[in-house]
Design a protein that fits this description.
The structure holds two protein chains of two kinds. Chain A is an all-beta fold. Chain A contains no helices and eleven strands. In chain A, the strands form two sheets. In chain A, strands 2, 4, 5, 6, 9, 10 and 11 form a seven-stranded mixed sheet that branches. A four-stranded antiparallel sheet of chain A has the order 1-3-8-7, with no helix packed on it. Helix content of chain B is 0%, strand content 53%. In chain B, a hairpin with a 4-residue loop joins strand 8 and strand 9. The radius of gyration of chain B is 14 Å and the shape is globular. The chains are: A mainly beta, B mainly beta. At the A-B interface, strand 4, strand 5, strand 6, strand 9 and strand 10 of A face strand 5, strand 10 and strand 11 of B.
Chain lengths: 115, 116
């Protein structure tokens, strides 16, 4: 167990629908990151939050949105789903600054299938 | 901006042999961290090894070691005594330090197959 919890593990839905993926970061980590990984592809950075504020944005579609709540958990909302959105969505968390524990810790991922 | 390049999309190695995966990066930062992550068929992302840029000594974790060449901006991963369980996708990553949230940059990955 990495300490980063993602739910649901698997999700099957239809085109046009909306889903929410949830992430609880590792205890003490203030930064949360979302990545998308399609089959046999690399990691596509979507968005990063630090202590509730958006910190950096990557190749995130306008149909996607995210937020980080006061308790530091984060949600990624995917709407108007298309077949191409089928992927493994990772959440990861990290400590801040120059701590010797600097590392990016990944959750197990949420596997989304859009039919 | 930081970039990470892995120029070997696929590699293979015989069991018990040694293999080296290449990674180069581009940055203007002086202090940063570098990582290798492993993604086996289960698709879990697992940290293999970490290197702090201000440390000249190369990091080692059991059969895994790195060759960190800061001036050349090179960070290769050596796997000794390769095992079947080492079959995975390997990602090189660069971390830029920030007090408002460290930023990570990943390479495109190298798919390693260990042949029995």
């Amino acid at each position: 167990d990495s300490g980063v919890t993602q739910t649901p593990k698997h999700l099957i839905t239809a085109t046009g629908q909306r889903v929410t993926l949830r992430c609880s970061p590792r205890s003490g980590d203030l930064s949360v990151y979302w990545y998308q990984q399609s089959l046999d592809q690399g990691l596509q950075f979507l968005i990063q939050y630090y202590n509730g504020e958006e910190r950096a944005k990557g190749n995130i579609l306008e149909r996607f949105s995210a937020q980080q709540f006061p308790d530091l958990h984060s949600e990624l909302n995917l709407s108007s789903l298309e077949l191409g959105d089928s992927a493994l969505y990772f959440c990861a968390s990290s400590v801040v600054g120059t701590s010797g524990a600097n590392v990016l810790t990944f959750g197990a991922g949420s596997r989304l299938t859009v039919l | 901006a930081q970039t990470v390049t892995q120029s070997q999309p696929e590699m293979s190695v015989q069991e018990a042999e040694t293999v080296t995966l290449s990674c180069t990066y581009d940055t203007s930062e002086n202090n940063y961290y570098l990582f290798w992550y492993k993604q086996p068929p289960s698709r879990q992302m697992i940290l293999v090894i970490r290197q702090e840029a201000y440390k000249q000594q190369n990091a080692t974790e059991n059969r895994f070691s790195v060759n960190f060449q800061k001036a050349a901006k090179s960070f290769s991963l050596k796997i000794s005594d390769s095992q079947l369980g080492d079959t995975a996708m390997y990602f090189c990553a660069f971390m830029k330090l920030s007090n408002t949230g460290n930023q990570f940059y990943f390479g495109t990955g190298t798919s390693l197959t260990v042949i029995p």
